[in-house]
Amino acid sequence: MALEAYRVEGCIPNLVACSVPLDGLCKSGAFKKVLELLGKTEKESKWCIHNVITYNAIIHRFCEKGKSIEAFHILYCIKGSKCSHK
Q1: Fewer CB within 10 Å, N side or C side of the chain?
Q2: Cβ count within 10 A of residue 35
Q3: Is 23 exposed, middle or buried (0-12, 13-18, 19+ CB in 10 A)?
Q4: Rounded to an integer, what distance in angstroms lies between the CA atom of residue 39 and that of residue 84?
């Protein structure tokens, strides 16, 4: 994924660099990939920490596409701190 290219080049991706691919994947309906990337970036929080804006956009896209159960799962996870989205 594009975020790996940052690290290969010795750069540290910021919040925008992490959030844009998530939004694009949501828009294209690749929700499984969204959850995988979200879980991966949460585990490696030293280089990308999501904020309320990122989570709001993701939850909105999930609800928009009729995936409210998954959206509630994400909300539950962020409320309690971190979790894996498998």
Answers
A1: C
A2: 20
A3: middle
A4: 5
